[in-house]
Amino acid sequence: MKVKHIFCDLDGTLLQEYCKLNSDDLTSIKEAEKEGIKVSIATGRLDYEIKKINNRVKINGYRISQNGAVVHNHDNQLIHMKSLTEEEIKQIVTKLSHLKVLVFFESRDAYYCIEKLKIIEDFEKSQDLLTYIERPNILNELHELEISSISIWAEKHENKNVQKSLEKMLPEHLTTYISSDYTLDITNVENSKGNAIRRICKHDDLDINEIAVIGDSYNDISMFNVTKHSYVIDKASNSVRKHANHTVKSVSEAIKHILENN
């Protein structure tokens, strides 16, 4: 069964150091598209960040953002969004208040923070994809927003300890995803890259073995578990690599393998 659709992660996979794209990877994506394979992005980032990447890459597929909480098609139509309730958000913030973390609120198209600290401003300046909006009274303004995820920044690797703490406190219908060494995302358990891909397969009448996935982090495990055509970047941790069937050095190597075996 031939691969007809590739889903690719951004940070650590297609995107390096928050904003760099490798020319070999971009060339391989165009080669896949020439062979009739659709290429989609699946990331923990927001949709507007994917669109900025698409301005450089011109990818022709879906945009899965916020770990599957929001999904758009190539025509900018919203085909899925699962938000958090005001009660859930306040519950999460209460749990996080006991931990040494920075908290961010994510809507469909914006990042919000209660206070825009210097560390946040410095991070904004270090790359060109995202902007944080300061809303000191956001907890009283939730009725004006549609928050789909909450993210935290922690000290390097401390997010794993934060995750363990939250798993003991959060209700079963909320889940967490580690998306980098410093970050952790909190959302509804229905939201995952894997579930988003399943929805797209059903919508496009694709068999799961007609898709391939490429990623490098814990939030990619759900999509590794969807299909046998799963590729993990070799810099990923052992606990992530074991979930994928193929280990590669780059997106271009993964696509080369897909095309050679199609």
Automatic annotation (TrEMBL):
EC identifiers of the protein: 3.1.3.45
Gene3D superfamilies listed in its UniProt record: 3.30.1240.10, HAD superfamily/HAD-like
Entry annotated with the keyword Hydrolase: yes
GO terms under cellular component: cytosol
Keywords, ordered alphabetically: Hydrolase
An example Gene Ontology molecular-function term: magnesium ion binding
Pfam families according to UniProt: Hydrolase_3
PANTHER family: HAD SUPERFAMILY HYDROLASE-LIKE, TYPE 3, PHOSPHOSERINE PHOSPHATASE
Name of the protein in its database record: 3-deoxy-D-manno-octulosonate 8-phosphate phosphatase KDO 8-P phosphatase protein
Upper taxonomic lineage: Bacteria, Bacillati, Mycoplasmatota, Mollicutes, Haloplasmatales
